[in-house]
Amino acid sequence: MGLKRGNRKAQVTIFIIIAVLIIAIAALFFAFKDELIGERISGDFAPVYNSFTSCLEEDMQTGVYLLESQGGYVYLPDFESGSSYMPFSSQLNFLGNRIPYWYYVSGNNIQKEQVPSKSEMESSLEKFIESKISKCVFEDYYEEGIEINLGEPNAKIDIQNNKVLLTLDMDFEIIKGDESTFVDSHKISFDSDLGSLYESALKVYDKEQDTLFLENYSIDTLRLYAPVDGVELTCSPKLWEANGVFNELQEAIEANTLALKNKGKSDDYFALNLPIEEEVRFLNSKEWPNSFEVLPSEGNFLIANPVGNQAGMGILGFCYVPYHFVYNIKYPVLVQIYNGKEIFQFPLAVVVLGNQPRNPLSGSALGADLPELCDYKTTLVSVTLYDNDMEKINGNVSYECFGTTCYIGESEGGVLYEKFPQCVNGFITVKSEGYKDGKIMHSTTTSGSSINILLNKEYEKIINLKIDGKAYNGEGIINFISDEVSRTIVYPDEKKVKLSEGDYEISVYVYENSSLNLGSSTTEQCIDVPRTGIGGLLGLTEKQCFNVEYPAQLISNALAGGGVQEYSISESELENSGLIEIYAESLPSPDSLEQLQENYVLFESKQLGINFR
Description:
By secondary structure, this protein is an alpha+beta fold. It has eleven helices and 35 strands.
């Protein structure tokens, strides 16, 4: 039985379709054979080309390492120094490796970001590859009579989550005798988690900018390790040494920062539970640039005075010391995102102002190019420095304007003639070894102005305290307070003080051990509160009273001597003496709260004897 005509036509159609598919596949194969099976290099030239691709892979590895270790930068942006107001420069020096801050505050208090985009990272790696490829070494092949010709490179980088792809368009010709081979496109796939680590770093950074969790941890640490605010039941002043407070605070910040981690139990204080899978490490070192400030303070001490022992306060029936100190804290943190094989790291600045987190960034400052005051010194000013004998002296001159301090230079022969940044009502400040710092207001809007600054010489003097005419070696606090400077020493641990000519209020507080035991007490206090109903709407009030219970307290140190004296110190007294003798009188040993209160009343009337010798 024969085939029907319609079946033969169907078979012919199928054969035609198959033939077209074969031709199309063949065309695609030859068009994309390099991508499918790679460049075909003859056996004699294969080692040369393999050396070339190995060199490319090494350059890729180096470039990826630079991106990961330098916060996404191969080539560092321009360096910007910090200031005494803000200690951060634009880069953190970590083990000799400079890493650009992703967030920092410039020396003139401008918030800045330096977060590279993925495309910027790809562009910098492309530039790096193009600059390095001509340095590949082929000396061994040259000695074998092989000629290698390199064209102009044009690199294209694609950073993916788990690999970095390089496509390099560059003529590469190998010639030996009459034989040659030519390749114009080269592809490298480098295994790396750069892309995924970078994305995770962005999430950590955005979380910090949104919530300021590092600043909030800093405030918790501040309140745990430093006096911030509180009340203590005592009749003696409370005193803290500022440097000691700062040292303990720095050590606590360093340890607590390192304790932060990504994952943990719900009740783990240090677990951040960030929206990433990798591990995170936060590093801080007290050796890195930082700034710790506290107000109020007297010299190097934080002092809180008691309430309840002043004249007219006896009705309280007890003494207490309230204190409230305000801190400004600035330090860097290095964030490391890692997965066991690779680490991506970037630094950022942590800033606490007035016991509160800094204000979050309003919008992105990426790529901001804001003018810096210190970069525009246009006004010539002449500054001459004198001592009290009108002799010219040298010193370092700076200019302060609205929180920004610009270093101008050092005088020569007592004179500095330099350009200053323009500012209205700025301050010229001078530091000179052996002299009290000088500061004078001066507007720098007109060139050619001149200013003379007089610096008072500082003299270090030994303090010899006497009570009732006899040498005293017990505990005491001695204050030298003037309009410009305050000096406080804790006697007898400290017996030296630096002073310059000027008017001072000198005060001496002498304390002795006490076992004065104040029993518990209850006091009724009444306040005016709004009345309920219509009367409250009309502003009428009524008294509401309640009892306040005060626990018993033991006063272990009590005021037992001292006084206050206004004294004008001349330079001749400082210059011609070796020590300062201060004479104070004792007060009755308090054996009751009333006597303790009376001592504070007597203290205000006691004068001091001051003798330079």
